[in-house]
Write a structure and sequence with these properties.
With 250 residues, the chain is α/β, with parallel strands linked by helices. The chain has 2 domains: 163 residues, Alpha/beta knot, CATH 3.40.1280.10; 68 residues, tRNA(m1g37)methyltransferase, domain 2 (Trp Operon Repressor, Chain A, Orthogonal Bundle), CATH 1.10.1270.20. 30% of the residues lie in helices and 16% in strands. It is built from 6 helices and 9 strands, in the order E-H-E-E-E-H-E-H-E-H-E-H-E-E-H. The chain has a 5-stranded parallel beta sheet with strand order 2-1-6-5-7. Helix 2 packs parallel to helix 4. It binds 2-(1,2-oxazol-5-yl)phenol (97T). The site of 2-(1,2-oxazol-5-yl)phenol has 13 residues, from strand 5.
Length: 250
């Protein structure tokens, strides 16, 4: 997968050089390019914003730098021989489609994503029109949640990690992806490691029993109870009897 990110704070995305995503880049599983929006300005102050038409507080990101940055992203992709030659443009924003594990899985199936990190009050609406109509890009505004950030960079870091880890080979043990929270609609079960007793607290005996069927049943019950306690909205009849003592859940 190829990922392009355009931002006025490219150093914010330095975290994509680290940990699992950094290793995936070294292994050739991910190709990430970060672009500084200011490199596509032509004035001495490298201006990327201006006042909003119609008045109102704050500043709006100008269309021209964005259009030239997107042109550059697409041209570089063509040069790199990316399949289809067009990225799916993802613009993080508080008014977007909620980002979920299901959406992360959809995005992980795509060959090329481009992320536009908005700042200030946002990006001139004509940039979205230009991307769709002139560049022929699919454009999606996606929200991390119902809260407001100062810009899209934090959201992109979260989205790239959530999507990148789903790419085959990025997570060494693919089995660990199976019973994670939200992967099948339930929250994860409680986990323990050595020592067996810690500050007078014991590991649940079933986990020491070696009875794999009993352990699996206990873990499923714990997932149901936790989901019922913390996220009843996620429960579905297919999940089985969630009418458990939610005191099981912590
Ligand atoms: O609040 C924002 C401002 C800029 C870019 C993204 C966001 C946001 C908020 C929630 N998800 O994305």
């Amino acid at each position: 997968m190829r990922i392009d990110v355009v931002s006025i704070f490219p150093d914010y995305l330095a975290a994509l050089d680290l940990s699992l995503i950094g290793k995936a880049r070294e292994d050739g599983l991910l190709d990430v390019a970060v672009h500084d929006l200011r490199d596509f300005t032509h004035d001495r102050h490298r201006t990327v914003d201006d006042t909003p038409y119609g008045g109102g507080a704050g500043m709006v990101m100008k269309a021209q730098p964005w259009s030239e940055a997107l042109d550059h992203v697409v041209a570089q992709g063509h040069a790199a021989g990316l399949p289809g030659g067009r990225p799916h443009l993802v613009v993080p924003g508080p008014g977007g489609t909620p980002f979920t594990q299901a959406l992360a899985r959809q995005l992980a199936d795509e060959p090329w994503l481009a992320f536009a990190c908005g700042r200030y009050e946002g990006i001139d609406e004509r940039v979205y029109e230009y991307a769709r109509e002139d560049l022929g890009l699919e454009v999606s505004v996606i929200s991390l949640g119902d809260y407001v950030l100062n810009g899209g960079e934090v959201a992109v870091l979260a989205m790239v990690e959530a999507v990148g880890r789903l790419i085959p080979g990025v997570i060494g043990n693919a089995e660990s992806l199976v019973e994670e929270s939200h992967e099948d609609g339930l929250l994860e079960y409680p986990i323990y490691t050595k020592p067996q007793q810690w500050k007078g607290r014991e590991v649940p005996p079933v986990l020491l029993s070696g009875n794999h069927a009993a352990i699996a049943a206990w873990r499923h019950d714990q997932r149901l109870a936790r989901t019922a306690a913390r996220r009843p909205d996620l429960l579905h009849p297919s999940h089985g009897d969630a009418d458990l003592d939610v005191r099981l859940a912590t």
